[in-house]
TrEMBL record:
PROSITE patterns: PMI_I_1, PMI_I_2. Keywords: Isomerase, Metal-binding, Zinc. One of its GO terms (cellular component) is cytosol. InterPro entries: Man6P_Isoase-1, Mannose-6-P_Isomerase, Pmannose_isomerase-type1_CS, PMI_typeI_C, PMI_typeI_cat, PMI_typeI_hel, RmlC-like_jellyroll, RmlC_Cupin_sf. Isomerase that catalyzes the interconversion of fructose-6-P and mannose-6-P and has a critical role in the supply of D-mannose derivatives required for many eukaryotic glycosylation reactions. The keyword Metal-binding applies. Its cofactor is Zn(2+). This is Mannose-6-phosphate isomerase. It comes from Apteryx owenii (Little spotted kiwi). Its EC number is 5.3.1.8.
Amino acid sequence: MGAHPKGDAVIRDNRIPQQTLGQWIADNPGCLGAKVKDTFDGQLPFLFKVLSVNTALSIQAHPNKELAAKLHAQFPEHYPDTNHKPEMAIALTPFEGLCGFRPVEEIVSFLQTVPELRALIGDVAAEQLERSVSDDPRGVSAALRVCFTRMMKSEKKFFVDQLNMLVKRISQEAAEGKDTSGSNGDLLLRLHSQYPGDIGCFTIYFLNLVRLEPGEAMFLGANEPHAYLHGDCIECMACSDNTVRAGLTPKFIDVLTLCEMLNYTPAPSSSKIFPATQSQLDPSVYLYDPPVPDFTIMRIEIPSSIKLYLVSAVDSASILLVIQGMAVGTSTAAASEMTLRRGSVLFISANESISLHLSSPDGMLLFRACCLL
C-alpha cells in the first residue's frame, strides 16, 4: 500500500480517472500536506504492508541514504532506488524475528557449545571475541565484525559439511530427548528444513531471537541485521525497495556489502521491542513514532461501546487499513459513503477526517500510516 514505482497501489473507485495512487498524488500533490510535500519532493514518503510469514524471510539489512545512493549507482538492477529503508513491524499474531546482534556473552557461549560454529569462524577470531568481553565497546564491535564476516564468507563446501554435521548431531540429541537449547536446536532444525544447506542457518547464533505479542513492535534502523521468521505483522517503512541479503533466500545475495555495512553493536533482545504510546487526545489511539521522519503508525482500537468514531485529520496524507470490525465511513472529501470491513484500505488526504458508523458488535481495530513532521 503506497506509491513506490515497483508496486503502485491501484485505485478501486472507477469514478476516479487516475488508476494508481502514484498518478493521483502526482495530479493532486496538495493531498500530501504542505510540510510532507516540501520535505519529500512531492512523494508519499512511506510504504505500508501486511506480511504473513510462514517460512523465514531472508537475512537482510537496509542501507542508509549515503550507501543506498552508492549501491544504486553501481548495481541499479539489484538496488532500485537511492533511498534509505528504516522499517517497523507491529505484530498481529505472536511474531518471531531475528534482530540485531546478541549480547556478546551469548555469542561466546554458543562458540563454546557449538563446535561446528567455532570451526567456521576459526580459533583465532573466536578467542579474540572471547577476550573482548571485558573490552571497550569498540573492541567488541571489531571482534564481532571479524567473527561474523569469517562465518558469512566461509567456503560453501566447508560450511555445508559443518551445517550437516550440526543438524545431524542436534537431530540425534533431540531424538534421545536431550535438551538442545544450548545449541538453539529447535530453531536450527526449523530453518534448516526450510533452507537446507544455507549459511543463514548459522546466523541464529549471532542475532537476537525477538518474540512479539500482538500490538508489540520492533524498529529496524539502517544497517540493522534482521530476518522475520514467523507470524503476521503490519509493516511500515520509508518508500524504498533497497535490501541487502545474505542468506535464507534464493534471491541475489551480497555478502560483502552486508558484512561491511552492518551495525555491530550487541544489545539484549528486550531492547529491540519498540513501545507504543497512548495518545493524549484520543484514548483509542496508540502511536508508534520511530526515530526517523518518514513515517509514524497509529493503532486505533475502537471499543464496542462506541458506535460513532471520528478518524481525525492530520497534516499528512495517510493510509488506513481495517484489521477487524465493520463500519460505514463518510467524509466531505468522498463522493459517497464507504463500506469498511476487514481488509479495506483507504487513502486519506492531509487535513481530512472520516466519520465511522460502526456496525460490528466487537468494536474495530485499524492501523493508520502517516508522516508526522
